[in-house]
Amino acid sequence: MVTTAVQGKNYIGGKWAPATTGQTFEDRNPADTRDLLGTFPRSGAEDAARAVAAARQAYPSWKRLALIRRAEVLDRFVQLVKADTEELARLLARENGKALSEARADVVEGLHMAQYWFGRARTPWGEVVASEIAGKTSFVHRKPKGVVVAISPWNFPFAIPLWLICPSLVAGNTVVFKPAEETPLIAQRLVEHLEKAGLPPGVLNLVHGLGEEAGWPLVTHPDVDVVLFTGSAEVGGMIKAECARDYRKFAVCEMGGKNAMIVFDDADFDLAVDAALLSAFRTAGQRCVSAERLIIQEGIFDRFVQAFVEGAKRLVIGDPQDEGTFMGPLVSQAAVEKVESYNALAAREGAKVLLPGGRLTAGAFAHGYFMSPFVYTMRHDPKARVLREEVFGPHVALIPFKELEEAVRIYNDTEYGFSLAVCSSDYRKINAVQEECEFGVGYVNLPTIGAEVHLPFGGIKKSGTGMPSASALLDAVTHQVAWTVNYERKIQLAQGLKAAVR
Questions:
Q1: Which of 153, 176, 357, 431 has its CB surrounded by the most CB atoms within 10 Å?
Q2: Order of strands across the sheet that contains 204-206
Q3: What is the pLDDT of residue 498?
């Protein structure tokens, strides 16, 4: 466990070094800003260019290494991380503020991702496809695309980088990793473990810094082939637009959500309430799949509201390092100010406020970014910004509906389309929700959270352009090539095309 401030460094071409800018930024504990975890390089365009050059230089030899040999690095990485899981989890909780149980799950999810890709290396990597011509055999092979830039967020600072890095490396790409500036230390620990696992120099490079100063030069670098991004819709939109300017460059952006749980009056009531509390307040609502809307059928609305509010009052807010804490702090002052602005907007737009939420500043909360839940009821209004825009904090609306069609219409009335949960005992209603709602990740009689690494994960509409997860990201970091072999001594072409040349 870190007890003294770390002097962080970039990792480029197998060497640890400060930024060429000579500048640094601080990494502080959001639960107690007096706690300095370290200072890290505030990198610039020159550092980004050096990292891309190192990745490009390492690419030919890495892609020629046998697929299984590339994957074996992840197996060694898993063994190293298993020995340090508790220390990594406590560091993660201290650095980004999520409760310790969630921090452990974050590390374990990263382990699962690495295990998944180690195993995938020994499964079919292509296809044998029938040809029209008896004397031919056709194959579909995957080839790596080249240099991948992986830009990850602070809310899952161990798991999400491995979502992006593992498939990229196993497929034969080299990677430049730019972690969020809020969580540089856990990112550095991750890279240190991959270095110890025997990853060759230049195959994975780490560049710390701010998005506009270090991240954007990576996105715009002409020698980058793929950009993988998890973060806000605003930044993701900029990345998509930039990559579209270069015909070679491909972008996968997993962005935000205005997610919802739909609860019908035939649902298991207690299960639905528990699922709603988990959906709204795990990680203090700072997940791309957190539910900021609870769409409740009128027959149980009043009862549900009462039970949900009572449950929210009982949630333990406190030090993320304490085992009994359910909800830690928000990640930063900027996050607090954003949530406060939406809390005020809800009141202006006609919400009936049941729990006023707000900043907690007394006693143990004095030096952290703690907030209590903001809960309100509101009829759906297509003009209400607070029901359509992502807040990313402990802020949730309870919205009544009469019939199935209205619930679907309310759910879809936002630019986002990420996570959905439905609670019901009627499979017909469940199926109708699955068919008619616009989402990427769905759950039945569960919270809106709970991703597993072997399933696609991502959204549609403003929530994303791809599915950045183990099972789906392979299509982004490889291209498929058709390879047809003729075993005959004559040429026969498909579709009956004549082969004669004279």
A1: 176
A2: 15-17, 10-12, 204-206, 174-178, 147-151, 226-230, 250-254
A3: 84
